[in-house]
Amino acid sequence: MKQLILILLLAYFYHHDLKAAIDLEKYSQEFVLETKRIILEDYEHAFNPSIIRFKGQLLMTFRVIPNALFTFNSKIGIVFLDEDFEPKSKPQILDTQDPNTVVPSRAEDARLIIVKDKLFIVYSDNKEDYISRGGFRVYVSELKLTGGQFIVGDTDCLKHFDGASPYLREKNWVPFNYQDNLMLAYSLMPHKIFRPIPGTTCCENFSLSTKSIDWQYGELRGGTTAILEDNQYISFFHSSIKMVTDHSNGKAMPHYFMGAYAFSSSPPFEITHISKEPIIGTNFYQGEYYKPYWGSVRCVFPCGFIIENEYIYVSYGRQDHEIWIVKIDKQALMMSLVVI
């Protein structure tokens, strides 16, 4: 992996001059056991899935762009899966439209979490400012299963928090459950934790921890929900750097990477361990490429995971057009993380 680190560093700093492209999948780790694509009827190009166990069943959300000519029109769908990660119910598009406005919902990249036996989605949307980058805010909605259909219940738009700006697009906050309270990690470095105040548009500062993290593959950003396991929280993040690879047709373009990290189970929730290099598996970067919605990328984007005995199953979007599951050996993954 040292060779990969060197090549990626060169790509990061000198991508416009880089001549030698590499096959990233040559550097896949042994703890990455297998990958599987999930194809949904009527939504072949769904992407960015989150996954959870709900009432004993596997439940997955996904994102769809109904019309490629209008990429601001984004929707969130939901579907039950069987134990082989095959769809077992008809996919449903959630109604996230605000009844008090004619501005269409542009819901993106939901994360699923259960708090006090209630199911919530945490997602980004822009319901108040029409196609405004700064208008995107994080929303928290309760999901209720009624008559076989999911209903979007009480929704909070988180607009008032430390560092809020009308010019910044808010997304990829990391949800986790702490003592039956929904928490949201606003950033990883520093690890800034908010507690949303239910029924309001506000978040309170809950904790802050700062550590220097040596990660050479772009800015650390949120990815999946964090899960408490073995007295620590585990989550998967993403980052991106611009580079040339065998997968980019000789062009310098952003490549998205996935990594894992752990943080302490109590405040201030310090990050304690992290991947030393990107997690890579078969079919992460090789495969079909598509006409881009918003710019050419090579994208692996984790949004959810479950832990099943000795295995971790991460749900991720590929190329903003596909849904995949990667099976990971939990013990080997945790042993691969470095202490910070």
Task: Describe this protein's structure.
The structure is a single chain. By secondary structure, the chain is mainly β. The chain has one domain (2-339): Glycosyl hydrolase domain, family 43 (Tachylectin-2, Chain A, 5 Propeller). The two termini are 19 Å apart. A hairpin with a 2-residue loop joins strand 18 and strand 19 (311-318). 40% of the residues are buried. Residues 12-19 have low confidence and may be disordered. The strands form 5 sheets. The protein has a 5-stranded antiparallel β-sheet with strand order 14-15-16-17-21. Strands 1-20-19-18 form a 4-stranded antiparallel β-sheet. Strands 2-3-4-5 form a 4-stranded antiparallel β-sheet, with no helix packed on it. The chain has 2 helices and 21 strands.
How would you summarize what this structure contains?
With 340 residues, the protein is mainly beta. It has 2 helices and 21 strands. The protein has a single domain, classed as Tachylectin-2, Chain A.
Number of individual domains:
1
N-to-C SSE string, H for helix and E for strand: HEEEEEEEEEEEEEEEEEEEEHE
Q: Compute the gyration radius: what is it?
A: 19 Å
Tally of separate helices: 2
**Beta-strand percentage range:** 35-45%
CATH topology name: Tachylectin-2, Chain A
CATH architectural type: 5 Propeller
The SS-based structural class is mainly beta
Helix % is under 10%
Write out the CATH superfamily name: Glycosyl hydrolase domain, family 43
Briefly, what CATH class?
Answer: Mainly Beta
